[in-house]
Structures are given as structure tokens and as C-alpha cells.
Amino acid sequence: MSRHMNLGRGTAATATAAFLAALLAAPAAQAAPGTRTLYAAPDGHGTSCTVARPCTPEGARDLARTVAGREVRVLLKDGTYRLDEPLKLGAADSGVSWGAAPGASPVLSGGQDITGWRQNTDGTWSADVPAGVTPRQLFVDGKRATRARGEACAASTCDATRTGMTGATATGIGQWQHPTDAEAVIRVRWRNYHCRIAAVSGDIMTFAQPCWTNSASGTDRTGPAWDTTTVDSTRYSGVAFFENAPELLDKAGEFVWNSTDRTVTYLPRKGENMRHAQAVTPRTEGLLVVDGAHDVTVSGIGFAYAAYRQPGTDEGYAGMQAGLTLTGATGPVDHAGRFYTKPAAAVTVRGGRAVSIDSTRFTHLGGAGAVLEAGTKDSSVTRSAFTDLSSGAVYVGDTEPMPGSELTGERNTVAYNTISRTGVEYTDAVGIWAGYEAGLTVDHNSLDHLPYSGISVGWGWNQAEAQTSVLRDNKVTNNRITNVMEVAQQQHDGGAIYTQGAQPGTVLSGNYINRSAYGNTERDGNGIYLDEQSSYITVEKNVITRIGYKWVSNWAGYGIENTARDNWTDTAAPALGGRGSVMADNLTGLDRLPAEALAVAARAGARGGPVEQLRTDLARSGTATQSSTEGTATAELALDADTNTDTRTLAEAGSWWQVDLGSVRRIRQVEVWNNSTAVTADFDIVTDDGTLHVSGKALRPTVIDLDSRTRTVKIVATGTGRVALSQVLVHS
Q: Which of 67, 82, 174, 451 has the most CB atoms in a 10 Å sphere around its CB?
């Protein structure tokens, strides 16, 4: 690994800010004097590559290689460039910039139009699919369709083992027309699995190999030795849903692929006319590959409809963490994820030097957005937009903890990007992932509506082969991360910012995190999660609110010398674990954000943005009582501004918890935060004005809007269970 200057914190921050300012200020379309400009168009041909006679992108690339002694830029004219294979740039293409022609919005597309739709008697429409195309995704008039899916199947029916699964009889799968086109989608904690049914015999289903074996225990390749999140583990609770069977096609916007007839069948949404609609499925895997090149700029270009083929093969999708999968029928013993496979991406940079991906657009992808890997250095993804991706947005680095210097990722930047609604299909994927990186900058990105973690830096789970690595001096700063770890996607044990590994010099600062795992059914999902061996990391001046579990988590005794200081949050958290880890000068338990916190939060993200101000809690100064107390779980623990402490009554008829506000107050909202084991269920909210019933388990939180004048707010179980709460907030 190359040596770095030992900069003080202020000097380093200034240098980083100056670098980003210079990087983001450069105008993309301005040509230097003497620059040779080549033009490409969707219908380009020939070798002239002029504005009047443009060529193909490949033709422009080839001509650029012949230009000596001058800088070259290639401008893409407006339109959609349909690619049968990726545009490949190598060492010979170094120094060339690629961008949009003035006023143009070119798009490199891997899509295949599906045409010739015919209406069926049941209201569905079918079309033939060209040879070589296997639709895993379908987009109709630019809107993603859903693979036809059924209901969840509990483990008591769909019991998974190392060899297969029961439940074919009870689910009716044994009677399906084409059960071997269908897949089981399974979520266990932070993992997501998609395996195709291979055969049905009686009540037993078996699945494509090696997908199923790689999803089950016993391979010595599925993660740390302590791991209990395989499909045959005790944490498996059932199949989230089966998908891609005509018997499941019952909702508008769903489609199904028939591999025997090579047809796709779709049930249109209201207003869609399949005779005139544009239906597209991803076909080409990878749209741009930069391999071993340096000083390449790509700006102003869109990337759409790139495929990710692996999940449609017998490999399937054996998710391990963060969108990486276990592949291959055999392989070395691996407890540290060194040999996992990243998802296919629209743009891949391998071994690049000073490669800039700027002001680009990634949308409607079957896999990931961009991957920087294999020792890419001094490169960046900036000012780009990522939305509606099946996997994650940006992957930086690799999974080898001690690579040679040529394969070490160093000084890369991911900044000023907007990332939303990624991980649509593979819900264990994260927004921005980095493996073993040194000097990485992840700055001023906006991430919103993601199924699992937002930003993940580091790898290895404290396994022996990962305890020494090149990780160091990474900066995760000024990002806006909202609505991540979405509860509906059932992915657990993550955080808005997630780290692993010893990372000397790493700083997480100035980030605004709001609503991570908000509305969860259990105590799970964090703001900043210093997981496993995370060490030597500074967490400072972050604003962290409305979190389903801990605002900061450093639970492992071997995660050492971490510091959390000068942060603002509306809850508390246990002390940091590990030798030398400290928390200092944090403002916790807030029910209003102070001006300085509001300013930090407003500046965070690609363009800044609004901040959800906290609402004053009228219950904070009230008096809590409850019908009985189990152990030390006393009533006032629901008023201590800490969602990690719990009250608990005995299990008895009519058990209750109450807060006396001290006087009659006008209240408009009550937040009920369930306790750690989600005990409180089927309860009444009782005020002086009446009773409101809440069915099912309370969430973290369940938010009840009402309009009442009352002195007391009482939560009463309607059965014989306990009332157990971590927090109750009352707002005017």
C-alpha cells in the first residue's frame, strides 16, 4: 500500500473539501484548445465521426485510438443506444472523455423491446420473447412490473432443510403447470435468497444447484462459523413468497415468464394499452466496462435496462450480505466473505486510475449501478442519480483484506449522488458498499427509501483472515440517509451507516440520518452501526433521529477504541463496547433539535434538504404508573427518552400502563414504542375523551393520530397479555 502524508484533522478536512470542490466544479462539456471532438449517434455508421456524419460509440472509440498528440473527447448525440454487448474501454482509451453533446440526453440501453402483444380471455396479455432473452424484469412505459408472487409460507408448512423444502401439497405448488419456472424468495435476517424450484415429488420441493446448497449450512463457505442465517437455520421463519407462476398472476402490474413457450404474460394496470405500450426487459449485461484505463471521464450519459443474469441461472441468488452472493458448486473454506461475488453492474471500472463517472443517470436496472474494483484508485462517481435498481447503487473495492498494492483500492470518491429505491428485487443490497478501501470519501450523497443499510464500509466479520487489512482513513461525511431498512422488506440487523473492520483514521461526520428501521416490529435496525471488529472510528456531529433501535451501536468487545462525540439524537444508547471506546458530549433524548443540529442536517446530502423537526413530548415531564411490574421493568422507563429500556407488567387480564400529564392538555398524537420482544398487542388507547383500539402488535413506533383534551393517556391490553413498552410520547 502506498504511503500517505500524516495530516492533522483540520488539514485533512480542508484538503478533502478542496479536492471535492475542484472535482465538482469542472465543466463537463468544455473542450480544451486543440481538442479533437468526435461524435456518435444511435444510428451512427462509418468512420468520419463528425457532427454531420456521426459514427457508433465503438467507431468513435476506435478512431480516438488513432489520434496522436491531442486530447480527444467523444460526444454522444441524443437518443437511445441499444447495446448487444458492453462498450469496452481499455488502456488504449486512456485520456479520452465521453459525454453528452450539447442539449442531448443520451442513454446506453441493454433493453429488449417486447412486442406483438395479444390479449387473452382472462384479461392478461402475452407476447413472444426473442431467443437468448430471459425476462427477470419487465418495464411497461417506464414503470417496473412485478413478477407474479404469492403469499408467505410459514416454516411450519414450508420447512427448509439442507436438501429441500416441504409444502408442495399445502401450497398447491405440486399442481402448478410449470413449477420449475417458479422461485422461492427467502429472507433471513440480513440475507436474501432466490432459488428456482428444480423438481416436485409429493410434498417435497428441491431447488436448483448450487443455489440451494450455497444458501444452506454445512458448506463452510456461507460466512462466519457462528452464522445462523442460512435457509435451514433456526432463524428461518418461512418463504417470503414464491414467484413466477401463472397461478400467482392475479394483480395488475404483475407478469410471468414461461420458459417452455418462451412467452411473457402481463396483467395491465389501469390505463395501460398493450397495443401501444412500450414494454422492455433487460437483455445485455453490462453497458460500459473500463478496464485498466486512466484519466477517463464519463459525463452526462444515462444507463438503463442492463441485465443481471446470474439469478436466472442455477447459481440463483444465494445472498450473503449487502448484495454479494456465494457462487460456484465448490470453493475454499471461507468464513470472511473473501470469495463472494458482487452483482453485475451497468458500469464497471477495473484497475482504473483517475476515472470519473459524473452527472450520469442509472435507472431501470436488473442489477447494480456502478462498480469500481480490482485496484481502482483516485477515481470517482459524482453528481449522478440512481433509481429503480434491482440491486445496489455503487460498489467500491473488493473482499480481499490484504491485496497487493496494485489491487488495493485507494483515494476513491463517491459524492453528491442521489440514490433512491434501489435494492428493489435483491433487498439485502445496500445503497453504497465499500470493501477493503483506504482513503475513501463518501460525501454529500442523498439516500432514500432503501430496503437495507444505506452506506456500508468494511468487511470480514472479525474472522482470523480479516483481522489485518488495508482499511484506513475513510470519510463518510455530510450524507442524508432517510427511510432506510424499510420494515416491509423484512431485512434486519443493519444500519443507515454500517461498518466492519479496524479502520484507523476513519471518520463518520456531519450525516443526517432519519427514520432507519422506523416502524419496525422488533428492536432491530440502527442509525450508525459499528458492527463486529469496527475499530478506531470517530463518530461526530451527526444528527440521528427516529431510529428503530440504537442511534449508535458498538456491541462487540473486539470493536475497540471507537469514539462517539458531539452528536444529536432523540434517544439514548448503551455505552460503546470494546476497550477504549468512549461516548462524550452527545446530546441525547432530545425532543427538539437545536439550531446547530438543524443546520448540520439541512446541509447534508447532494443538495441539502428539509429536516424533520422533533415534536415536543408532553409525557416527558409526566408521571407514569402501571397495573403491575415484572422485575425491574418499572413504568417510568417509558418516559426516559431511551428506546432501549423497557417497562413490563405481569401477564394478567386488563393490564395497563398510564401517564399523568399533570393537567388537562390538548393532544393530537401518541407514539407507542413496543418493547424489545414486541410484547404489547391488541390494546386500547384511553383518554378522557374516549377509547381508540389498536389491533395487532405495536410497532417501534405505532403512531396514533387523535384530537383529545385529556390529563391521562392509558394503554390497556384487551386480553390477558402484558403491556411492555420502551417509550411513549405524547404530542400536542
A: 451
Q: Cα–Cα distance between 226 and 249 in angstroms, integer?
A: 40
Return the number of other C-beta atoms located less than 10 Å from residue 476's C-beta: 30
What is the pLDDT at residue 209? 98
Beta carbons within 10 angstroms of residue 14's beta carbon = 12
Q: How far apart are CA 695 and CA 352, in angstroms?
A: 56
Residue 6 binned pLDDT confidence (cut-offs 50, 70, 90): very low
Pairing assessment for the beta strands 317-321 and 324-325 based on DSSP bridges? antiparallel
Q: pTM of the entire structure? A: 0.95
How many Å apart are CA 457 and CA 720, to the nearest integer?
Answer: 46
Supply the pLDDT for residue 7.
38
Pairing of strands 702-717, 681-687: antiparallel
Within 8 A by CB and 6+ apart from 595, the residues are: none
Query: pLDDT tens for residues 323-356?
Result: 999 999 999 999 999 999 999 999 999 999 999 9
CA contacts within 13 A on the Cβ side of 552: 33
pLDDT tens digit sequence for 61-73: 999 999 988 899 9
Can you give the length of the chain in residues?
Answer: 732
Query: Helix, strand, coil proportions of the chain in percent (round to 5)?
Result: 10, 40, 50
Q: Does residue 140 have a pLDDT over 80?
A: yes
CA-to-CA separations, 91 to 289, 291, 613, in angstroms, rounded? 12, 7, 51
Beta strands in 168-228 (DSSP E): 183-188, 191-201, 204-207
Cα distance between residue 50 and residue 475, in whole Å: 43
Query: Could you give the CA distance from residue 87 to residue 678 in angstroms, rounded to a whole number?
Result: 52
